[in-house]
Amino acid sequence: MKKLRFVMLGGFLGAGKTTAMARLARKYMERGQRVGLVTNDQAQDLVDTKSLRSQGFPVQEVAGACFCCKFDDLISQVETLATNERPDVILAEPVGSCTDLVATVVQPLKDIYGDRFQVAPYAVLFKPSHGVRILRDEKSAGFSPKAAYIFRKQLEEADAIAINRIDEMTTAAVDELASLVKGKYPGTPILRVSAKSGQGFDSLTELLDQEGSFGRKILDIDYDTYAEGEAEMGWLNSSVHVSAGKPFALDELLRDIIARLQANLDGEVAHLKVIGLGETSFGVANLVSSATPAELSLPSRGQEKAADVIVNARVAMDPELLEKRMKVAVEAACANRGLKVEFRKSQSLRPGRPTPTHRYANAV
Ligand SMILES: Nc1nc2c(ncn2[C@@H]2O[C@H](COP(=O)(O)OP(=O)(O)OP(=O)(O)O)[C@@H](O)[C@H]2O)c(=O)[nH]1
Ligand SMILES: [Mg+2]
Fold first, then answer.
1. How far apart are alpha carbons 10 and 113 in whole angstroms?
2. At what angle do helices 201-209 and 17-30 cross, to 10 degrees?
């Protein structure tokens, strides 16, 4: 049987993984390959799954913990895709607060499922909004040193680091950033990309097509620091149904919810994302740091009478308080438009200590 190409794309919360996966998937499809995507989160109701499915991709999800702790679920979701879609390439997006993936996901894939999968080089997207401050060891890096530790470890195990969002930077700023990254991770190839515009994606695809000695950087990692860093993040996944007697602009509602929430948070934003699924349209709004403005990454341009709204928030603050603030923001944004709100499901948590299904101390 032909082996399935397994492409995992890493990167911190809000680095651009989902946007990049959609772009890569389209590139593979353009060259005649079939794709299957796997998303991952600490809780249920994933904006990423809904967003990628709404864009027409076949997606399965591993929800409730990271790939490393739910390795068997990852395999079974890939098998479901393999049966239903007959893909040539699997694209997998791990949770953005997760690291040590080379030891816990890449090695078992190669060792236990080597006859089934051919694992691509492991590329990690670099998120400039937090990354620059973290790599420069700035005191006000946005996150605590333990969360910054995770950010650094993610880059350390990468076969290649792709600096994302170059569409927003001058060439000089990208050069400066590339030399900062090179100084910290000497020997790791650095790519310059924009998941939004597609710049650099030919090089990224070329890199991911390579075969050879990849996925071998086993981290020396302190799981206590890793677990404490991850647990600093308040996690919230909520679904809400909104309806009205007359049509309302879905994009404006999404933007308004994010803006109201942003104005009322106690900690650094890692990623706040809201998807609105109307009858005929869908849209996604995002906020990737406390210091940057919110944006509509996928505008719906829809006028809807009802919509399902899903909020996924990862913010360095108490998750219960985050949930309360989210409710206030949604209620206010809806009251402003005369919309009826029905809160459906909600999970707020701090990620638990990662306990990987497998962990290899040496590369296979
Ligand atoms: N300007 C710009 N924005 C980008 C780029 N890539 C991603 N974004 C935006 O960054 C935000 C986060 O992107 P996602 O793809 O959702 O990030 P992610 O890494 O999947 O986030 P998590 O799944 O929460 O970890 C969205 O608003 C995207 O539109 C880029 O290359 N340039
Ligand atoms: Mg994502």
1. 21
2. 80
* DSSP one-letter code for 102: I
Cα–Cα dist 157/84, whole Å: 32
Number of the ligand closest to the Cα of 15: 1
Residue 19 CB less than 6 A away from ligand 1: yes
Q: What residues pair up with 306 in beta bridges, in sequence order?
A: 243
Ligand number, closest to the Cα atom of 286: 1
Question: Tell me: the pLDDT tens digits for 313-347?
Answer: 999 999 999 999 999 999 999 999 999 999 999 99
Euclidean distance between CA atoms 137 and 99, whole angstroms: 20
CA of 195 to the centre of ligand 1 (A): 8
Beta bridge partners of 123: 9, 160
**pLDDT for res 173:** 96
pLDDT tens per residue, range 88-102 = 999 999 999 999 999
Cα of 281 to ligand 1 centre, how many Å? 20
Q: Which protein residue has the closest C-alpha to ligand 1 atom 30? A: 165
Ligand nearest, relative to CA of residue 198? 1
Q: What is the pLDDT of residues 209-235, one digit of tens each?
A: 999 999 999 999 999 999 999 999 999
- Beta-carbon contacts of 335 under 8 Å, excluding residues fewer than 6 positions away, are none
The 10 Å Cβ neighbour count of residue 259 is: 16
3-state DSSP call for residue 275? strand
Distance from C-alpha of 31 to C-alpha of 287, rounded to nearest angstrom: 33
Q: Answer yes or no: is the C-beta of 195 below 6 A from any ligand 1 atom.
A: yes
| pLDDT bracket for residue 141 (50, 70, 90) | low
Amino acid, res. 112: I
Q: What is the pLDDT of residue 2?
A: 83
Per-residue DSSP letter, 338: T
Answer whether 98's CB lies under 8 Å from 45's CB.
Answer: no
